[in-house]
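Task: fold both queries, return tokens.
Query 1:
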Amino acid sequence: MSIKNYMLNMRNNKYLMKHSASAAWLLGENIVSKIITLLVGVMVARYLGPTNLGILTYIISIMLILEPISSLGLKGILIRNMAREDEPYENISTCFIVKAVGALCASIVLFAWVYNHNNDNTYLIIALIMGLTLIVQSLDVFEYYYLATTKTKYIAISKFISQVATAILKILLIFMVAGVLWFAVANLVNVVIVFCLLICCYTFVDKRKLKIIFNKDKALMLLKESWPLVVASYGSIINMNIDKIMIGNILDIKSVGLYEVVVKLSTFAYFIPVVIGNTL
């Protein structure tokens, strides 16, 4: 088969073209976001210095280790369910309530962990902000909806707007000589903007109503299917984040900040296979 005929066959394959376009939106957004994050991250790291950056990184690492308690491994299962069903209301609302309860539990554990190891006001306030971030992230069920329907351009546009807005906010905070707490708030603002925009797309573009419908049987079924995924995900999550926590406990918080700068540069391209996998 010639290359020309192969390209024509690809163009006529609606399924392939649909998912290729979906992957292209996410890949483009991720590349732009990673570049923005890297550039602004360098500015923030230089401004905060190793100690303040280390405090923020240390608490975020603990939050990420607790994140499976919040997400409960429901992403793939919910996307599969919504791809099979015409009406997403019950799936979205049931999953949101389950994830919100999990996020609340994870937030309590996060605060208790930080309080037990570093009983300092700065650490505790950042832990509260990161805990609130976990709870807000329960709204990512709307992102799952757009992944299930392969309308990923709404995800890409929402995340791009959020990244640009957050980058501008962080630069303003640098010029205002703000403390490390405000940079934790900026991370929370980033998440809030994304999901506010996705909810607006869901209600005004897709013309769907927001309904709270909790199905106990569906919730139990989701948890029954997802718990092996939670256990499986902990291996990679601990591997990616335990190093920063160990450095913070064994050495000092300044070393965590120095280590974080190097790690961000080395993991720059990790997102590419993840984006492709999410759209298939």
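Query 1 returned. Query 2:
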Amino acid sequence: MIVTDKYIIFAQVISDTDNTIINIVSKNNLELLETIDTYCFGHANDMAYNSNTDEIYILSGASSSDKITKFKINSNFEITDLQEINLSRKYSSIAYDSDHDYFIGYNSPNIIIMNNKFEEIKSIDAPSNLVHQGISYWNNHIYFSCYERGTITASNPNAIYNNKEKNSSLIYMYDINGNLKRSLYIPNTSISGEIESVSLCGNSDIYFAYNVKIDEKETVSIYKSDVLSKVAKIELTNEITKKSYIQNEERLDLTGGKIKVIYNDNSEESINMNQEGVE
């Protein structure tokens, strides 16, 4: 799944040999606008969007692929300018970093930073016992989504799993230097299903794409959240100047005091404690 300034675009796969279903959804009201099924992109495991060139990239081939196809979607919702590109290794997920003109891929257990020619720049260690899903980038941070299958899989027979957390999700948040900053937990009591991807675009809204069962039928559900704009923690950076008072005669004076507010997207804000609205 990718998010542009107007659309949410995600792929659905019937099989690796059938034509891929590309769904275009309005970003404003989540209404399905168009479905394109004229090309086969294999397993189509993940997508990336270059906002500078308006190009879409999709991992084509198997679930872990060494091929990526780039294309555009014109105003008539037609796919144009297809070009298949060979990669130096297999990736299960892909993202584009518009700030540095980088591509970011996941090749277990590493996040790989690449230049715009898909040449490797550096590797970030990103191990997890959970099932590895989509990757995304926004505002100097990498978002790596995983979910708890609750069972052993043939591809990862030694994984540790937790049945109580089955279908819960965890999104790891790394800075561009590879430092794990925090994780966002989505319990199965809030959303239960297989998270496939996470995407951000232009603000602190975050979009999740899930495979879920509705009436025993597999379907895709998209959720939007403003969790990244919520406060993660508050730190005291400067103490107030006046600390001694005469009881019942003097009112509290917060002059000189400052706090640092840290949000879930890792952005920070310095606030004077005597500022209007601070309680």
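Both queries returned. Flag for query 2: Residues 129 and 159 are 5 Å apart (CA to CA).
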